[in-house]
Amino acid sequence: MKFFVDSADVDAIRELHDFGMVDGVTTNPSIILKSGRDIMEVTREICSITDGPVSAEVVSLKADEMIAEGRKLAEIAPNITVKVPLTWDGLKACKVLSGEGKMVNVTLCFSVNQALIAAKAGATFISPFIGRLDDINLDGMELISDIRQVYDNYGFETQILAASVRSANHVTQCALVGADVMTAPPSVIKGLASHVLTDKGLDQFVKDWAKTGQKIL
Ligand code: G3P
Question: Is residue 46 part of a domain?
Fold first, then answer.
């Protein structure tokens, strides 16, 4: 499973990239707001860190304007993935932009049928939002699993990019049900290294080592 970083924090992206944890990056208007930076400038900097797909989202609601915005965003770097919302206009934009050879990420997916029509419109990635379904007492992971089954039934090549990933458990479940990619904030990715028994075991090793009175270096 590929790991994308759901962030525009360039220091955090660089840190994760330096030890092989970054296969790509996803951003959205809320993430750009949080960064406090200009979308073109920060996206260009992110593309200088990773060669993997970097999702930059259009903000218009009409297909023609989304297409124009998508073309402008795609000029930033060859690894830009234009992100469009899962609306009828977004799907029209997806069809045109993917027809031009651009990678397209269709976002805000909350149903299998939405994922099905995004694949038919030529999406490179479909982004189902796990956490936001869990928030309203639905099962985000069941959606990932159902999309996997439907895409496999018909050989769709659209990659399932599990989004709104909020916990280590989400990451495990995504890998078990066969998501192609998961995107998560840096804190969730770093948290994957943590286990209470690792901390406890290491504490014991440190104490016992001190008692040996030995040194390696
Ligand atoms: O990848 C989508 C993500 O940015 C949304 O996450 O936690 O706001 O639902 P969240």
Answer: yes
Q: Is the pTM of this model over 0.70?
A: yes
Most ligand 1 atoms within 8 A of CB, residue of 4, 5, 6 to mutate: 6
The conformation of residue 100, written as its DSSP 8-state character, comes to T
Which amino acid residue places its CA nearest to atom 5 of ligand 1?
164
Active site residue 83: yes
Please list the ranges in the chain whose pLDDT falls under 70.
none
d(CA 133, CA 112): 13
Displacement of CA 158 from its chain's centroid (Å): 14
Which percentage of the chain shows pLDDT scores above 70? 100
Question: What is the domain extent for residue 95?
Answer: 2-212
CA distance 31 to 36: 9
Which of 106, 75, 113, 73 is CA-nearest to residue 89? Answer: 106
Tell me whether residue 132 is in a domain. yes
Nearest CA to ligand 1 atom 3: 164
Q: Does residue 82 belong to any structural domain of this protein?
A: yes
- Output the domain CATH number for residue 47: 3.20.20.70
